[in-house]
Amino acid sequence: MSEKQGVDISLVAESGPGLVFIVYPQAVTLLPWPQVWSVCFFTMIILLGIDGQFIGLESIMTSLSDVYPSQIRKGFRRELLLMLICASGFGFGLLLVSQGTLVFLLLRYTPMRFNNSYVYPWWAYCIGWFLATSSVMMIPVTMVWKLSQVKGTLWQRLKMSSQPAGDYPVGTTEIESTSTSLHFPDVDKMAMGTKMPIL
């Protein structure tokens, strides 16, 4: 790709996890039958991830089975321990994919650089922060607006704003009675006596 663009290879891509999802897929598109190679490439990535999970899980299971052989190797205890390890790993993994990561990124914020050399101008940072916060800022703005529309103390306002509106159908019978489906009696009558041709 660097030869095709006529630039040095260090300018085409940086090393790191982005290499797998940006540079390699672009390189695969240059091969003959790129769709087949793309399926093979991403299947390989998924299998590598699963392989890494098996290695980590089996190393924990084997070490615990070697330390406590009489307790773990009875009945279905190995499978139960395996399920416990998987569930705890899933729980800890949720911490890594939740919005807490966003908070930590904001706490350790450093200005973004391209290729560790190019520093973006201040106005580019302003545009980036505006775009990043524009979708999120509607939540507190709407909350403040709703709180300002309700009368009472702050606690009463929060309580009233947290409840559904009075005209909101709560039960299924209310939802069915307020159904907005359209019925045209004349059309329904005509359609009842009509025989549809079978194609």
TrEMBL record:
InterPro entries named among the record's database cross-references: Na/ntran_symport, SNS_sf
Location(s), subcellular: Membrane
Keywords assigned: Membrane, Metal-binding, Sodium, Transmembrane, Transmembrane helix, Transport
GO terms for cellular component: cell projection; plasma membrane
Keyword Transport appears in the UniProt entry: yes
Positions with a binding annotation for Na(+): 48, 51
Name of one Pfam family that matches: SNF
Entry keyword Metal-binding: yes
Bilayer topology: Multi-pass membrane protein
TM annotation in the entry: 36-60, 80-107, 122-145
GO molecular function terms noted in the UniProt entry: gamma-aminobutyric acid:sodium:chloride symporter activity; metal ion binding
PANTHER family recorded: SODIUM/CHLORIDE DEPENDENT TRANSPORTER, TRANSPORTER
Name this polypeptide is given: Sodium-and chloride-dependent GABA transporter 2
Native species: Liparis tanakae (Tanaka's snailfish)
Gene: Slc6a13_3
